[in-house]
Design brief:
371 residues, alpha/beta, eight-stranded mixed sheet, 18 strands, elongated, disordered N terminus
Amino acid sequence: MWKEPTLYTRATLYASELSLRTAEPPSPNRISCDVAVVGGGIAALWCARLALARGLSVVLLTDSVGGKQTLAAQGIIHSGYKYRGNSATAMRTMPARWLALLSGVEEIDLSDVDVIAPAMTVIDTASGEATRLEEPVVDVHSLMGSLWRPLTSMTISARVRPTDIDVSDRGIDVIRTPTATVSAKRYLIGAGAGNDAIAAALDTSIQTTTRPLRQLVARSQSPVDPIFCHVFSGGDDPVLTVTTHSIDGATYFYFGGGVATENLDEENFLESAREEIARLLPTLPGDRLVWSTIRRDRSELQAADTRELDVMLRSAGNATFCWPTKLCLAPRLADKLTDFWPEGQPRPTVRLDSTATLEPSPLPFARERSP
């Protein structure tokens, strides 16, 4: 039977309630490091690895290790040939530079990354000629795993929003997450589409542009010959770029190029794209494939006149924002960030009990439609 609380009991309950109402929330851990990197794609992970190679302490903040935009890339190490209509000077040395990285003789060791093709083939439908192009193709999921593994214990699984950032006259003071407050000498923001909002928090205007892509995926459960090619049809830009990926016993043909950027909003996009692909690649076993699409918005810094095919950087105090534009240009970050790295005695290495995991490849999760 319930009894009326005694005066002592009522006083005790009131004191407990008052304590609960007035107690300060638990203070999160404060972490100090040399470089805090925001983002989980190729730009963020590459910069974090560069910092490690320089003996600096690093914290990576992301809710998407691997980066959704990066993991949707085909993995081609472009030489600039595909972009003949643009200024692609920075790409010309990329295949040779990546081969050194993949051999493990550069400051970032990528010797454990899977190379799925040693070169691409250029097909000219006008002349009927096919030539070898020295552009290796890497497995992007393998690449991102290789970049992230040394950073696992330095990763905080959190999405950084503008409201999580304390701003000071030097730029970013601290970044607050549910588990820790991070204070760094320098901040590298490689959050893709999230760069705009973070820049706004620093009263920095960054004009970015979004390029919608709708790439096609064709899955085969039976053995098929791989295809790695750029297809040109009389113009400067390829009408089709194809790579082949094996995941969990299935083979995926992944299509980019003009077919991924034209007529994106048409209701019959998939059907018309399949017809164009069948015309350009008549040997493709289209009747044995299950077709699907992957939609991605690529965020890039807006150039003055044309899309700049190089790494793009913008600084605001102690924070630097970066966009690699293309996955193959990631090594250019080492060239561009020479003045970014903090000076003085490095802070102690950060070790965290991280719960972060690498995002899966998006290909098996594409929206499928039967033939």
